[in-house]
Amino acid sequence: MNFVKFNPRLWFLLGFIGCCSLLAAGAYMQFVAELEPCPLCISQRLAILATGVIFLFAALHNKAHKAYALGAAVSALIGAGISARHVWLQHLPPDQVPECSPGLEYVFRHFPLTETIKLMLTGTGECSQIEGIFLGLTVPAWTLLAFLILAVFSLLTIRLQAKADESRI
């Protein structure tokens, strides 16, 4: 006997809350701990935001669960790719680290949009700096782990929905 019925709306809402928690942690690190985010950190936050918005729409819409789950998983995996690049940059030998760029405010004002996007997705020298370690992992490594969990969490909705549909038959 199945006492718990799978509810995709609740599942997607939990994913949205998870993304909000990640964004709140980033805001805390920036505004309270005063850790200035690098271009890759900002790109990762945008990927978390995009994933969270997809989760929110899925929870509100309550249809097309598979499409929303795939969309959230793709968004999370894009974020995981950005985080993996960030982790890679942090593990480069000092002589292979790319040059630091001017601040993002300056870049947004004086560089073309394509150059700004390229800078935000590839990272610069300041992205290789390790600002803090928690339980042996850097913040980008934790973010990579969070993105992978979000992707699995999202794809799991497809499997759980299929099992729920099977049990109704």
UniProtKB/TrEMBL annotation:
Q: Among its keywords, does the record have Electron transport?
A: yes
Q: Which UniProt keywords apply?
A: Cell inner membrane, Cell membrane, Chaperone, Disulfide bond, Electron transport, Membrane, Oxidoreductase, Redox-active center, Transmembrane, Transmembrane helix, Transport
- Any transmembrane segments, and where? 42-60, 67-88, 139-158
Any idea where this protein resides?
Answer: Cell inner membrane; Cell membrane
Asked if the record carries the keyword Transport, the reply is yes
Q: How does it sit in the membrane?
A: Multi-pass membrane protein
Which segments does the topology annotation call Periplasmic?
Answer: 29-46
Residues exposed to the Cytoplasmic side: 1-11, 161-169
- The intrachain disulfides are 38-41
**Mind telling me which SUPFAM superfamilies this protein's record contains?**
DsbB-like
Q: Read off the PANTHER family from this record.
A: DISULFIDE BOND FORMATION PROTEIN B
Describe its function.
Required for disulfide bond formation in some periplasmic proteins. Acts by oxidizing the DsbA protein.
Query: What is stated as this protein's family in its record?
Result: Belongs to the DsbB family.
Protein name (database record) = Disulfide bond formation protein B
